[in-house]
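Model it.
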Amino acid sequence: MSEEALQLAAGAILDTPGIGSVAVHKAVDSTAFSRGGAMSITDAIGTAPTAADGIDMEVPEMPSRRHVLDLDDFSQDEISAVLDSAKGMAEVLRRDIKKVPALRGRVIVTLFYEASTRTRISFEEAGKVLSADVINMASSGSSVEKGESLLNTALTIQAMGVDTIVIRHPHAGAPYLLARYLDRVGIINAGDGMHAHPTQALLDMFTVREKLGSLEGRKIVIVGDVLHSRVARSDIWGFAKMGAEVVLCGPNTLLPLDLLGGDGGRVPAELASVKMDTNLDRAIEGADVVMALRLQAERQQSGFLPSLREYIRRWQVTQARLDRAKPGALVMHPGPMNEGIEISSSIAHGGSSVIEEQVTSGVAVRMALLYQIANRSN
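Modeled.
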């Protein structure tokens, strides 16, 4: 593929509904640059973690990885290794003094072209707890406003000697473009268009595993605007790879047709077990986890919904519906929430909710990823 075609592929041309990274991979083969050769964690970071790092844990062996772009190229063992590592990082966060020197001397840049609260702050906190120098950069107030391209911005950042770039961008494929052309910097995808949000999926899996003990065989119901949700796409890949039963629920107009084979596309083998149901009362039966997705107002304006009243009546997560799930079922939401629309306020803040735990888990998971990627990229 020519460089010009690749540039186009990283823009809005790829920002179309599709599950996981299948569409993106047609234009950019991530496996060519998202993995390095076989290498132990000791080789990857230069030295095994010790008490001097401030992390009292056995860091599991992980396949060498320069970038985190999505979960479709993660193995089950690699996902487990990240979650195991995050458990040790969570212990650091429970200390009175939340500071360890594990990434002292490393430089991390958060490059966000979209607004963010949870993701951006948690990455910044994760880096600072590990003693990295974290630089926050937004497109507003930068040379982007003068017309500088994403690639030239990233090349400039790389030339300054940073170790890792955490990027959020409105166009699907943007992190893949940087991973292709930046050879001295690790790239972490913090959300690209409607494509993927891998670190959110990892923190969701970590939260469920910490609460329920395992992921295999668990019934995970994801309800709402699945079609336009990058969180749902990565969650589907992650939970399915870990052996969970994933059920997608919502209006027909907000479910991914490619997963049903409705667009003539091929369904990836890992996702063959994923089910769909437009009836939430039926889908939620026996669920271990119920995850509500934010309903964006523009979806109604675009004709995806007859009315908000209809959506609330049929797909809002309420106590009556939650009673159909397993006793002790977890309620999750990636945030931000529209309380009273996709989820009732009493459920969002009730005893079944682990929404705040998701936020806490996000810091631990991102610490684990930064520890691996920032060291590996050097």
